[in-house]
Design brief:
Layout: H1 2-7, E1 13-20, E2 23-30, E3 39-43, E4 46-52, E5 57-59, E6 65-71
Length: about 70
């Protein structure tokens, strides 16, 4: 099912696996946000800020790595 989900993505998006407070989930982030300071991520009616790093990881405001790019 995950592969089917990923195959539906366009080339303008990246899929990130986020590990936030012990829970892992998938977030789709527009590629246009990569290279900027970061972007907002929604999760279960919560909104938090992540920084997108050039090496494919993303981090929280304290710099702790909370996720990584799954597919381009």
């Amino acid at each position: 099912m995950l592969q089917r989900f990923i195959s539906l993505l366009t080339g303008r998006r990246c899929v990130y696996l986020i590990d936030f407070e012990g829970d892992r989930y998938i977030s789709i982030i527009e590629k246009s946000t990569i290279g900027r300071t970061g972007c907002y991520v929604y999760w279960i009616a919560r909104l938090f800020w992540v920084y997108l790093n050039e090496d494919g990881t993303c981090s929280d405001q304290s710099g702790y790595i909370i996720g990584w790019r799954y597919v381009d």
